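Structural prep section.
Before we set up the soaks we want a predicted structure of the protein with S-adenosyl-L-homocysteine in place, mainly to decide which crystallisation condition to try first. Input record follows.
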Amino acid sequence: MEKMKSLIEKLEKERMLSKGEFLTLLTTISEEDTLFLRERARQTARRHFGNKIYTRGLIEFTNYCKNDCYYCGIRRSNRNVERYRLTKEQIMDCCGQGHGLGFRTFVLQGGEDGTYSDEDIVDLIHRIKADYPDCAITLSIGEKSYESYLKYYQAGADRYLLRHETANEDHYRRLHPENLSLKQRKQCLKNLKEIGFQVGAGFMVGSPYQTTEHLIEDLFFIKELDPEMVGIGPFLPHHETPFAEENKGTMEQTLLFISILRLMLPNALIPSTTALGTVNPLGREQGILSGANVVMPNLSPTIVRKNYELYDNKICTGDEAAECRFCLDGRMKKIGYELAVDRGDYQKAEQHIKKQIY
Ligand code: SAH
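Run finished without errors. Recording the tokens verbatim:
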């Protein structure tokens, strides 16, 4: 349809659409136009990153969490999960293994676990930076005070992932208990940006009660925040949560949003997530072909992996770090891409253009 093609071209050119235009796009796009959108998004990623895919070594270092998010498998109320914490030495071992495998970014992710004090996190950042000065550190440990974030940044952490989950107040209420608020979540993201982190926002696609209007609000929120990274993946139910019986998000809808986000934020770091690889065996490849440019294989010790199950049937929980790396290597090669041994920092648009000119 010509009208749809021109909408997609407008999105590419202006990097944004109005609410009404997004609604038209999301509710009436045909399969053929979806392929056109995907192609534009893929070309945009190619222009900025070539055929290189950045990798992040994900270390899930604790599954203790004080929060009780209704969607999450490691929520506090789940009594049927074996809780674990990695020691600093175990975390350092993961980094050592990861470095040997070519990872130059480590992502420390966990539940909100008060057992690790700010001093513990700072010490960990110092140790990793001392041993691996060529690596970037990304934290993904939830909502903290401005002062805590500042301490982590000053210690040398480079990036912070904190998905906003949904930008709509009512929807946020339906996914989280009373003590958590969207206002607070957004304030954290603002603080992280102000401090100087490369910041990652994001949301689940197809989460319970989500409407197309909510998703459009997510796009507007992301446009306004202008994050360096955007992580999205399909919602997948976990059997020990209140959402056990809810429908999962689809690969197709997630891919559509990856493409839209790529056109909105051409130089953003957008991962093809594990959840996408869980909903479909070729989901991560499809994510890359739809405009994503990052993969985040797991570096956590195999013995704890199955306990960091945010949703059912999570992939790669039985593999060693090296297996994950080589498996992804092969998967990317098959579709014409290569994993980069690179920190893979966010680069402002001007730097990209300069690179092309000189
Ligand atoms: N405690 C950290 C890390 C959360 S886990 C924080 O609060 O930021 C990382 C992400 O996994 C979450 O932000 C959420 O978007 C996603 N996630 C959690 N449960 C999920 C589920 N059931 N299906 C899909 N994604 C889920």
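Observations: The radius of gyration is 19 Å.
Flagged for discussion at group meeting.
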